[in-house]
Amino acid sequence: MAVLENFEPQKVFQFFEEMCQIPRGTFDTKRISDYCVAFAKERELSFIQDEANNVIIRKPGTPGYENSEPVILQGHLDMVCEKTADSDHDFKKDGLDLYIEDGYLRARNTTLGSDNGIAVAMAMAVLDSKDIPHPPIEALFTVDEEDGMGGAHAIDLNQLKGKMLINIDSEEEGILTTGCAGGIQYESILPVHKEKKSGSLVTFRLHGLLGGHSGAEIHKQRGNSNKMVGRFLYRLSKEVSLNLVSVNGGSKDNVITLDTTAKFLVAGDVQSVVLEKAKEMEKIWKDEFMGEEPGLKVDTSVSEETDCEVFDDKSTQNVIAYLELCPNGLQEYSRKLKGVVETSLNIGVVETREDCVRALFQIRSSVETRKHQLKEQLEVCTKLTGGEGRVTGEYPAWQYDPNSRLRQIMVDTYKEVYGEEPVVSAIHAGLECGLFLGKRPDLDCVSFGPNLLDVHSVNEALDLASTKRSWEYLKAVLKNCK
User: Fold this and answer.
1) Which residues have C-beta within 8 Å of that of residue 412, sequence separation ≥ 6?
2) Would you give the DSSP letter of residue 253?
3) d(CA 290, CA 296)
4) How far apart are CA 197 and CA 307, in angstroms?
5) 363-391 exposure pattern, b = at least 16 Cβ within 10 A, e = fewer
6) pTM score, whole prediction
7) Helix, strand, or coil here: 312?
8) For residue 210, what are the contacts with CB-CB under 8 A and spacing of at least 6?
């Protein structure tokens, strides 16, 4: 029996559960794109599937709405693939193991993909329906949103007739999003030179952090294990001569890193100093977080005397200095919207390769000049530590439109359905609407969605009751788009 079989809205959950059995990590979207095409063919709906695997599915308006302005329902097909350290889940071939706990849908030991599968499932339920009044629908399902918004970059929006676009990629019920931060992906490459040395091999691992979305949860000031390990290495290097062997943490620039391991060689009888410094830093971090990182844990092991290939002294100093110097986390709050983050960045990936250490950042800001100021800081930091940097992706901010017809329809409908005013706001996370508006300035965009918790982490959860309410709200909005 399907996990969600007895929950309403039945069709929404049916389609979402089907999607959860199809691997759909970013850059692995052909299977989920083909699923959408098969869905359209079964219902004799017209569709377009482009070379990037984006899909557009069209459905005519219901009686009385045939000549209404089309409405675009939009979400992305790909998901962030994160799992616990002890999970053997293979995101390339395994479906998700769903379960319900306290009214929330979760996936065992992995991310859930409700970001943004729930948008696709809602749009499919509209396309599948026989009794929901609606104008002509253009369902736009993009790919590779979670790493550079590749689908949004590739899509030809001139294929769409509609101007009103409802993006279902927000994560808090009761908030209508009408603007978002712009972003830059920045990559630093620090060259390393290696040599053979003898000593004791130390493995230092910091793990158990909460992690989360580097936009939506950056204001919570959660620990970033890449920065924290850099801090430990810097402090230890002032007391002990060490040479790095590797440092690795994170797999996505838009995920707050929760698990990082550094390996390094120490010479002489300094094991007790290393172990004591590790214990000292663990206590410092726990004191600083004041209980807000309850799973924080440090594991340190020291091997017997060994010979191995290490970074030379200069390369070791450069990498440690870089990790200690580079900016990270919340930088500025908005001066116009109380409590909304304006500017941040996240060192989501640190990866040791054969001849370099690679660091990958996600920079976000609703102010273009602030965004580029952070890029410049990273450029300086990278050059000072002997490296080279480059921008690997960029997307614009989505600016508030004071004349939005769609926003007014959605505000009025919210009051009808909920009996209260919605919050109309901007978010710090990046949404595809900014890119869409760069291509089609005539678009009128609003984003909403049900309550999602801890997206981009293994604690991701979808609020089932909120999903039902959000579905009823979407149906009412479409009814009012006549």
Assistant:
1) 480
2) T
3) 11
4) 6
5) bbbbbeebbbebbebbbebbeebbbebee
6) 0.79
7) coil
8) 222, 223, 256, 258, 292, 293, 295, 454, 457, 459
* Amino acid in the structure at residue 2: A
Q: Is 459 helix (H, G, I), strand (E, B) or coil?
A: coil
Residue 111 neighbours by CB under 8 Å, 6+ apart: 79, 80, 81, 82, 83, 455, 456, 457, 458, 460
The tally of CA atoms less than 13 A away on the side-chain side of residue 284 is 11
For tokens 């059995």, name the residue. 21
Residues, the chain? 482
Q: What distance in Å separates the CA atoms of residue 379 and residue 398, rounded to the nearest whole number?
A: 25
Looking up tokens 């050059």 gives 383
Which residues make beta-bridge pairs with 363? 184, 345
Q: Is the pLDDT of residue 1 over 80?
A: no
Instruction: Pick the closest to residue 266 from 301, 291, 318 (CA basis).
Output: 301
Task: State how far the Cα of 189 lies from the Cα of 200, in Å rounded to an integer.
Answer: 28
Are the C-beta atoms of 15 and 120 separated by less than 8 Å?
yes
Question: Active-site positions?
Answer: 78, 145
| Count of other CB atoms within 10 angstroms of residue 130 | 5
> What's the whole-number mean pLDDT along residues 91-110?
97
pLDDT score of 383: 98
Q: Specify the DSSP element, H or E, that contains 389.
A: strand 388-395
CB 349 within 8 Å of CB 225: no
**298 to each of 125, 260, 324, how far by Cα in Å?**
46, 10, 18
Runs of H (alpha helix) within 261-302: 271-289
Per DSSP (E only), the strands in 108-221 are: 137-142, 164-167, 175-180, 182-191, 194-207
Confirm if 71 and 137 have CB atoms less than 8 A apart: yes
pLDDT at 326 over 80: yes
Query: d(Cα 152, Cα 131) in Å, to the nearest integer?
Result: 31
Cβ–Cβ under 8 Å, residues 305 and 198: yes
pLDDT band at 440 (very low <50, low <70, confident <90, very high): very high
Contacts of 296 (CB under 8 A, 6+ apart): 206, 208, 209, 223, 282, 285, 286, 289
**27-59 residue pLDDT tens:** 999 999 999 999 999 999 999 999 999 999 999
Distance CA 213, CA 346 (A): 10
